[in-house]
Amino acid sequence: MAVIESLTGILGKRRVLTDRGVLDSFRADASFVSGETPACVVRPGNAEQVQKILRLANGECLALVPCSSGGPRTRGDTVPLAKDAVVVDLAGMDSVVRVDRRNKVALVEPGVTFGALQAAAAAEGLRVAMPLAPRKSKSVVASLLEREPTTIPKVHWDMSDPLCCLEVFFGSGERFRTGGAAGPGTLEEQWAAGQAQKSPMGPSQADWAKVIQGSQGSLGIVTWASVKLELKPRVEKAFFVCSQSLRDLVTFTYAIVRPRLPDLCLIFDRAAFSAFLGERASRDLPPWMLFYSISGYEHFPEERVAVVEADIRDLARAAGVCPAGAIDGITAQRFFSLAGRPGGEPHWKERVSGGFQDIFFLTTLDKAPGFVDAMEAEADRRGFPRENLGVYVQPVQQGRACHLEFTLLYDPRDPGETGRVEALFLAASGVMIDQGAFFSRPYGPWAGLAYRKCPDSVSALRKVKAILDPRGVMNPGKLCFG
Description:
Elements: H1 2-11, E1 16-17, H2 20-27, E2 40-42, H3 47-60, E3 64-67, E4 86-89, E5 96-100, E6 105-108, H4 114-122, E7 126-127, H5 140-145, E8 163-170, E9 175-177, H6 187-192, H7 208-212, E10 220-228, E11 230-231, E12 235-243, H8 246-257, E13 265-269, H9 270-276, E14 288-296, H10 301-319, E15 323-324, E16 326-327, E17 330-331, H11 332-339, E18 355-363, H12 368-381, E19 389-396, E20 401-410, H13 415-434, H14 446-451, H15 455-468
Parallel strand pairs: 2-4, 3-4
Antiparallel strand pairs: 1-2, 5-6, 6-10, 7-11, 8-9, 8-10, 12-14, 12-15, 13-14, 13-19, 16-17, 18-20, 19-20
Helix pairs in contact: 1-3, 8-10, 12-13
């Protein structure tokens, strides 16, 4: 193909992949989304090559599908829906450009994983707020752009956190920098003047990073991002709180998260907790478990931990619950060591049955029990076993809202079971959105469910798309850009 020759001229032969096995791996993923086999996969090594690829795509009306995380993929957002698309794999752009301890911020390319950033931050006495046990190959930038929830709600001020600034090449091929990085001057000139690319607002009062977040690569290609970091604790202590009722844990979670007492804070049901540990759900475990950690930092770390521990103990007594250091022989410190670092392979959700499907959305903590009841009723109605239905509740924005996630564990090698799970996935998603779930990340079939609720948003988004990607080359067919 002439396009492949042009791409080879830009990148060199080694960076343009046409191997059938590689191409077929992008045609579908572990989600229920299937698409087209791409014409090739390209691996740019710098921003200038990305811009040249975009200019070629505009000239040839070539569909581009950006990705930066390694497989296996699970959401369908990197599955090409257009014929002869080109997958732009940014995993090779993997430099931690800068870690600034004074301003607690890092600047990273899209191929940087959480393990790499965690190591670079730790060398400066800092840490990064991560999602729960991300894959080892998970791109930090991809996670930030998709607004994956982090496990430390007390430092989660805004839904965009911990993302700060971006460099993005829009579908038009134009280079653009958001927030404090917009200028004036180059990055090096800004650093010399004491700037740190930490303010996300801008240029002017526009928040362009929020426009780009959640767009599933349909507006442009990000070539670096700046990320807020936090002080690395010197002392950490972890606890479980068990309950027969999610509602009781919700009350207690509000009590401790609003004054920002714990660091890590999340809720699992029995099935999700067991799967996280690589086991089948055990009836010996309580139905619901809240996990939290408390930390001491540079000054008087032991004293801070002791004070926070006592404050939480008082709140627990008032809520009628009891913090403990272990559940059924599983220590909170062991769980903490797993939750606070990138996960192993295979992913923890794949260890029990081999496959999974997630249904997740935003709601508020007080409404979470109602959604759980509705999900369990739908699963019972369709004969899906309760022990294969995991629930993960992640408070976000200091407890103002929460990420609620249902995980359907199943064997993807069984066609009958796969069909039943797909039917449950689609039906339950409809039930959730009709009950008020906010699908802020509408992958695959969720796009139709989410956007039919707000036609005015669809109209506005299409106008933005026409400005930033006038030829429609960026990941066509995703979201409301069919």
